[in-house]
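Support case: user asked for a sample of complex input and structure output to validate their parser. Sending the pair below.
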Amino acid sequence: MSRPLGLVPHLFVKDVETALSFYGKAFGAVELFRTVLPDGTVLFVELAVGDARLLVSQEIASLDALAPSTIGGTPLLLTLETPDPDDLARRAVFAGATVEAPVTEMFFGERYGRVVDPDGHRWALTTKREQYTPEDIDARKPHEV
Amino acid sequence: MADGNPLTPAAFQVLLALAAGPGGRAHGYGIMGFVAEVTGGEVQLGPGTLYRTLTRLAADGLAEELPGEDSRRRYYRITPAGREAASREASLLRRLVAAAGDADLLARPESA
């Protein structure tokens, strides 16, 4: 049986250059290559974010590829693992993100916070730590949200 | 990656191919051929993976593209930082392979 090899978010944005500038400054994203249509539309850009891949496309209404501001929000939260979420959050804010939830210690044993990028995509910034077992986390979880 | 994080398998394989080349240099097809040969064909770096990996290594300062006249045959060279990263990864792999030997994972029958 074949199995998936990876999971790659593909984000639609209002303006690719603005978005790439943000992802570069905030998350150290590196552009690997891009495909541009003859009329100048950026069909997609492939980025490396850490060891992960990220695809970014300009909003194209005819393909139903719509940016968050067009839809009026996003149902997706992108979780970015990092050794230092405080530093990444600072860099994201400096690059133009807004803070949705400040970085703080969470019951599941991670320092975790959320920012919204200039295009309206939501990012969780968190440590890659595993000092709590699933039982620990279950015992520490809130009774309601 | 450049700050001491472990290299991805593809990044290590490409750096290894460059380090093994004359003057720490190799071109794309040379890298693919080297990796296929060393792994007995078990690892085949496709052109897409190779291009992405080289671009990323260059961005991280671990490899650099050499100026050349023939754009179809691009040469790349490992940088001192790339050599250091690959060397660190090789030392880590050596410890793991030694442990694998101790755990009898390397024992192979002489004839199948």
